[in-house]
Amino acid sequence: MIEYFFKVADAYFSVQFTEPDIDNRDLIPTCAPFHVAKPDAEPMFTVVVSSDLVDAEPEGEEMGQFDCGGMTHGVFKTADGYKFQLRNIDGQMACAMKSHNRFSRCEVSLFGDENNRAYGLNNALMLAFAYAGAHHQIVLMHASVTVFKERGYLFLGHSGTGKSTHSSLWIRHIPGCELLNDDNPAVRVVGNKVYVYGTPWSGKTPCYRNLSFEAGAFVRLKQYPENIIERDNVVKSFASILSSCSTMIWDKPSYDAICDNVTAIVSHVPAYFLRCLPDKAAAQLCNKTIAQ
Q: What is the pLDDT at residue 158?
């Protein structure tokens, strides 16, 4: 067995490969910036990878088939956790995963060619991190994050609303901006501050930065024929941020933990609603309102 350790959002996890004759690090290159030789704390979860650990068949009560950016996640409730079937954008099985004990241990088998196996393993790790992290004051969010003056600004919204576009407008038109993550940052409350972290998962944009910044604001985006920004009240802030978190509403322990984490987040960081065009003026208005 070969075991690798990684540190994301100041939390450790490990990946164990039971077939030592294969250098499986090639399957998870985006994790390389987060690799550590040895953790100084207990990993919050371990993923064990072996070709014969988990079969691809359904098992338990089906919770649903979910489209996650073109990849289908089949989720089944088992006696002691969950089973996931992860299929690629062509519908081919890429990975089967079983989780146990609040995702503290997950077992994974991979299928297909190397690209398919890599696709499956990276998505399995992302799922394990999201739901194990919920119990460690961490939320994994669907957001694009731009850094300005040492603070991270998170742009939220449904797919196609322009999160990446708005980040790119900040970077193009506002000096000193840089991208931290373009799809799946981690957010964590530490004391009375909220931090946003780069992760090994960043959607279609290759941006895997092992960096963290204090969160400056959350901004929910909506396409609109003019540029208008308003600060949300606490209730709207909670709803906006929660809807952008990776959640399984039917899993009460993780969902309750995520709700507690979001409650802590909104008590420390403001949230805004930006209705806008995809233009320079929208980026300048947003930056002037939330970051100056």
A: 85
**Residue 132 sits in the same domain as residue 148:** no
Q: Give the number of other Cβ atoms within 10 Å of residue 161's Cβ.
A: 17
Domain boundary among the residues 120, 136, 152 is at 136
Q: What is the pLDDT of residues 107-116, one digit of tens each?
A: 999 999 999 9
Percent of the chain with pLDDT over 90: 82
Cβ contact 84:97 at 8 Å: yes
Residue 80 neighbours by CB distance under 10 Å: 10
Same domain, 280 and 143: yes
Q: Calculate the dihedral angle through the C-alpha atoms of 255, 12, 120, 24, rounding to the nearest 10 degrees.
A: -170
Q: Looking at the structure, tell me whether residues 173 and 281 fall in a common domain.
A: yes
CB atoms under 10 Å from CB of 128, counted, come to 24
Q: Distance (Å, rounded) from C-alpha 239 to C-alpha 107?
A: 33
Specify whether 21 is located in the same domain as 126. Answer: yes
pTM value is 0.94
* pLDDT level of residue 1 (50, 70, 90 thresholds): confident
Q: Does residue 214 sit in the same domain as residue 278?
A: yes
Share of the chain above pLDDT 70, in %: 97
Read off the tokens for 92: 């081919």
Domain that holds residue 151: 139-290
Burial environment of residue 8 by CB neighbours within 10 A (0 to 12, 13 to 18, 19 or more): buried
